[in-house]
Amino acid sequence: MAGVDEVGRGALFGPVVAAAVLITPEQGRTLAQLGVTDSKQLRPRRRQELADEIRAIALEVQIAQASVAEIDQLNILNASLLAMKRALLALTIAPDGCLIDGNRAIRELPIPQETVVGGDRSEMAIAAASILAKVWRDAEILRLASTYPQYDLAANKGYGTAAHRQALQVFGVSPQHRLSFAPCRAQVPPSVEQPRLIE
């Protein structure tokens, strides 16, 4: 089975990132023994250690994303589903099925799928995917932090902390900010055309 999860859905800055992890039941038991769980329950250093273990143990892993432009055009839910679909379709080993974190199925996915609410806490393949997606996105945000130092991205990873919102008021938005999100949209002059959402 493949498990897929996304991270960055609530951020104001940067892409939404998904990972797909393909494992056997035996590999799932090994990952459980190592302490693989929902990425939000782990410290950054432990996430990185487990990400390395997952890559070494799993049959295959793939990372995909949806860009800020796609988020602004499609809306964050559809962009998240697109990133997950891309990660699953990138697998070179065809899974027997896939487990999707959450309650929304992926449209036009040629793989049998099952949605699992809270899957990052109950399904090992999804938990592993949550760790890989989080580690990859955090590294990407840290890379972008050197280009946009005014937003304190190293600390907030693109999420809407008080310091990040204050920086938006002072410096305005960057090309990596999501204009379809209200705190970013509020900083765009009325003369600038707003993104048109596709529902």
Describe this structure in words.
The chain is an alpha/beta fold. The protein has a single domain, classed as Ribonuclease H-like superfamily/Ribonuclease H (Nucleotidyltransferase, domain 5). Helices cover 45% and strands 14% of the residues. It contains 9 helices and 5 strands; from the N terminus they run ββααβααββααααα. The chain has helices at 25-34, 44-57, 68-74, 76-89, 119-122, 124-145, 153-156, 162-171, 182-185, and strands at 2-7, 16-22, 60-66, 98-101, 113-116. Strands 3-2-1-4-5 form a 5-stranded mixed beta sheet. A hairpin with an 8-residue loop joins β1 (2-7) and β2 (16-22). α1 runs antiparallel to α2 (44-57) and α2 packs across α6.
The CATH architecture comes to 2-Layer Sandwich
User: Structural class from helices and strands?
Assistant: alpha/beta
| Intertermini distance | 30 Å
How much beta, percentage-wise? 5-15%
Order of helices and strands: EEHHEHHEEHHHHH
Global shape? globular
CATH superfamily: Ribonuclease H-like superfamily/Ribonuclease H
Helix content, binned percent: 40-55%
Low-confidence stretches: none
Number of domains: 1
Rg to the nearest angstrom? 17 Å
Specify the biggest β-sheet. Answer: 5 strands, mixed
What would you say about this model in short?
This protein has about 200 residues and is of the alpha/beta class. About 45% of the residues lie in helices and about 15% in strands.
Features:
single chain, 199 residues, alpha/beta, Nucleotidyltransferase, domain 5, 5-stranded mixed sheet, 9 helices, 5 strands, 14% strand
Set out the fold topology.
Layout: E1 2-7, E2 16-22, H1 25-34, H2 44-57, E3 60-66, H3 68-74, H4 76-89, E4 98-101, E5 113-116, H5 119-122, H6 124-145, H7 153-156, H8 162-171, H9 182-185
Parallel strand pairs: 1-4, 4-5
Antiparallel strand pairs: 1-2, 2-3
Helix pairs in contact: 1-2, 2-6, 3-4
